Structure prediction request, 142 residues.
Amino acid sequence: MLIRQPAATGWRPAFVCGQKAACMEQDLKARLVIHQVPTTQSRTLLRLAGKLNTHTTAQLFEIALQMARRPHDHRRLLLDLSAVTHCDNGSLFTLLGLCQALDIAGISTAISKTNHVVQTRITQTGLAHRLPRQAQSDTAIT
Prediction:
């Protein structure tokens, strides 16, 4: 899994899991790329691209842990899932738990965008009314 953060000259990798070479080879088959986009002082947008499954959601937990350590820096987290190419049931339930845990830590979390693949899976799992969605008044930052 790769997380990218903005650098002065473009995007740079912010996180590559554990052992870089082995992880990179695995990523070719089951890859989730996460772009971290600071939108305002207290808001962050995460754009996820690739496969979202129970294996790749581990990196979301790493980001959540980093954010929870600095709750005053991050009060709002938006998740853009519009570039996710595959999504399994387990990852959506994991995402729900992550949103609830961050809420307890004082970080409001919501899904800002989805695509047909993700929305279909959300509906199939019965999570359409349980996963937090971005309010219409909050759309200016995505």
Observations:
- The chain has four helices and six strands.
- The longest strand covers residues 76-87.
